[in-house]
Amino acid sequence: MTTNDQNPKIKGMSPLLLVTDLNQSIAFYTLQLGFEIAFLYEDFYAGITRDGYSIHLKSGRVDSEERAKRRENEDLELMFSVADIGAFYEYLQSKSVEFTQPLREMPYGREFYIADPDGNLLGFVDQ
Q1: In this predicted model, what pLDDT tens digit does every residue of 7-44 receive, in sequence order?
Q2: Which of 30, 41, 77, 95 is the most buried (most CB within 10 A)?
Q3: What do you get for the CA distance between the two ends of the chain, in Å?
């Protein structure tokens, strides 16, 4: 498919995560995962970036039952592809993040999962 005036090109994408405490989430993503604050809108919305990729965080009511079910089923909110998964895994171990799935070999590559303070599951793979 080619890009033309009737089909404009998408230049980026920013998934949005619901969080209960915006400041706590910003601290987690910046201090633990190495993101930087791109913008902060009032006291309920923020954008964070790392390596040219962005995530938006919005304060809201988090359904803890739904999060528990997602965790039980390993239903990831986001999946990141990383260059050196072993080094990134060690880096996060030094940051004391909560691993919900330790580093493992899968048919499609090596992967691990972590949870943010609100229980959002984040996967990392070396595809």
Answers
A1: 899 888 999 999 999 999 999 999 999 999 999 999 99
A2: 77
A3: 25
For 60-91, give the DSSP string: ----HHHHHHHHHTT--SEEEE-S-HHHHHHH
Taking the C-alpha atoms of residue 124 and residue 32, their distance in angstroms, rounded to an integer, is 14
Model confidence, pTM: 0.88
For the domain covering 16-125, report its CATH number: 3.10.180.10
Buried b (16+ CB within 10 A) or exposed e, 19-40: beebeebbebbeebbebeeeee
- Residue 125 CB neighbour total at 10 angstroms: 16
Among 20, 67, 16, 76, which residue's Cα sits nearest to residue 46?
16
Strands 78-81 and 121-125: parallel
